[in-house]
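for the writeup, i need someone to sanity check this before i put it in the appendix. the sequnce is what the collaborator sent (i think, or maybe the updated version? ugh). structure was predicted straight from it, no edits. if anything looks off just tell me and ill rerun, i have time this weekend
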Amino acid sequence: MSNDQPIFTVLSEGQQPEKEERVSGGPGASSLPATAAASDTESGIFSVECELCEDHEAELDWFCATEQKLICSHCAVVGPCRAHSVTSLATRVSTVRNQLVDVCEKIQLQALRIERFIEHTLTDKEQKLQAAASRAREQVLAQVSAAREALEEEEQRLLEAVQREEERVEQCLLTQQAHWKQALSSLSQTRVRLVHTLTHTPDSQLVGGGGGGRGVPCDTDQLNLNSSCSDSKLLRGLWATAVLLGQNARRSSLFKFDERTVSPLLTVSQDLFTLTFTNKKSRQPSQYDPARFDSWPNALGSQSLSSGTHCWVVDVGQSAAFKVGVCYSSLERKGSGNEARLGYNSESWVLSNYDGDYSFCHAGKKVPLQVVKRPQQIGLLLDWPSQTLLFYEPDSNAILYSLTQTFTAPLLPAYAVTDRSITIAH
């Protein structure tokens, strides 16, 4: 069938004109000529060829819409379908034919729309896809190339720095060895002379005698490799991003507050995820526990960290005064001195915020932090193998502060809050 040929014309080809019905006294008195009925049945709409009614031996030239079947005129007048909705076979065929013509025309229009969609829309989309994919590939290659170039340059710089530091320490060691070997030889000679003096010098001459020495050898930092020679902000940032976003990125098992350590100034939720600062009127006396902080608004985590890589997130958006970090389990719990105050001793490392003033605190020293936007969450990343502690902002993975520290004992997550509440994300 040609696409340009109207579907109605195609369906109507060879169709015989309908002959008038003979109506006399109702539907039972009308009938179609046999040729018209044969034409309709041969069209394939009804698979009936000259069939007769089983009850009346009359031609099936009417259609019962109620029972959806062909009937004869007697069935329509006096038979079981006399109260049903009936129509002549020719009228029914004409209606169905028109419906089919409408369906075919709609199918043809839909086919044309599909053809246009394939020829125009999909083809245009394919061209745009190829262009966009090409731009994306170029962008990826350019970014990876820039990162690779920067990383290779940083690698070369760091390796040269480590080499220079190694040569410096080697030179110091050689100098020290030469110096103390000479001192050892000199001391040996001096000892021989002193022994000779002791055995051969009269007592009267020993009165004014004296001894000498070469000093006491001692270890110094000059004889150690300076670990800062391998420190790189770029490398640390790339490493942290790889840990936080890379294929092997994973979060540690759920962290919770250790209820035993929670200060009387705080309350902890039943699920042990939320820590809230309480005013004086709401405070309840707490049972004595050697693990509990009794003066500072502190609490520790329940999970000890001494191996592997761990990261956890704390919701801090509701609080304007808090501390998050880590500490040794040996941190003092009693009293109001700095020994129990997070960030003011050598056993704790915390990020502190007080009314928008962000800083890193350790051993009483503060390092101010530039925070462009107040973070709703603070993330912590502890990598035990590299002895690295890192504070970051989870939404952007921007590093707020990082340090490499030789930790000599297992660490516990440490928290403090003096405004509203903080929550460990889970």
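Confidence is low (pLDDT under 50) at residues 1-48. The first strand starts at residue 62 and ends at 64.
thx in advance!!
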